[in-house]
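Protocol step 4 of 5: obtain the predicted structure for the target chain.
Materials: sequence only (see below). No template structures provided, no constraints applied. The aim of this step is simply to have a reference model before the mutagenesis design in step 5. Sequence pasted as it appears in the construct record:
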Amino acid sequence: MAAINQIVEMLRSHFEGDDERFRTAVLQLAANEARMGHDEAAATIQRLLEKGNKAQQANRMRASLGDGPFAANELAGLMDAVEPAFGLKQMVLSAALRRRLERIVKEQQHANQLCEYNLTPRHRLLLLGPSGCGKTMTAHALAHDLALPLYVVRLDALFTKYLGETATKLRLVFETIERQHAVFLFDEFDSLGLARGSQHDVAEMRRVLNSFLVFIDSMRGNSIVIAASNHPDALDVALFRRFDDIIEYGLPSRKEVELLMKRRLLQEKDSDINWSKVLGAMQGMTFAEAERVASEAIKERIIEGLPCVSTPLLLSALADRRRLSRPTKA
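Step 4 output (structure tokens):
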């Protein structure tokens, strides 16, 4: 009977155009099949849903890029459409960082009013800091809170071995930025913004960087461009003045790690954890590392059939994570 109800819900949500309800009903159907021991059927349903989601993203991308000669091929390969799943409220942030990001959202929401006074909201952002401290998550959260599409520029696809082709592709990306109101993320930006004159600098990279400087200077659309880098010291100094805001991320405080861990373990009932001991051992970890520690402890609890997540379980997952992030030399 449950399967029939889910199929009815799928049909109803499909004809009403409610994609989120449709996906939820499909996932419920897959879970129901898995509970009945129909693992192959459940896996097939999930694969079809994932394929449909990718096709839907591609359709949205083609619709936003228009009917130009590059819409269906080059550009589609240069950017990935991503569905933001959380906002700033779901992020663990310091009070100062939260104020700055909320200010960006407010300025974007009042863009028309600012325009009346010949002012523009911040829309070129440079995020700097260690990997795993929230830079990429910030792009997701801003897109979510502003109800905008999020496109991640694939720098690996941007660079080619042919002279001049990379700059041409970069021009196509910025033409899309001008046409489409969205959030565009250039992750690991140091691969593009490498300082001119550095030991890794080559003539082609100088041309690409110069092109980027020209394109970002001439931005006139409503899109938000976010560049994120783990290595600010490697960036060309000319880049910094091209951005409306430069936001630095650091390692989370003890209080922030505690909040993240408790949120992650919220569904773990009756957990017996010595937080003083655990948090002391987690000093110097990033948000991403802390998240992985919690996930690994939960997985171990499930696999071993343990009643709850305990202090030894978290410390064991923590030790494993330390070894992975700091491998010993042979």
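Step 4 remarks: The beta strands are 79-82, 124-128, 150-153, 183-186, 224-229, 245-248. The longest helix spans residues 39-65.
Proceed to step 5.
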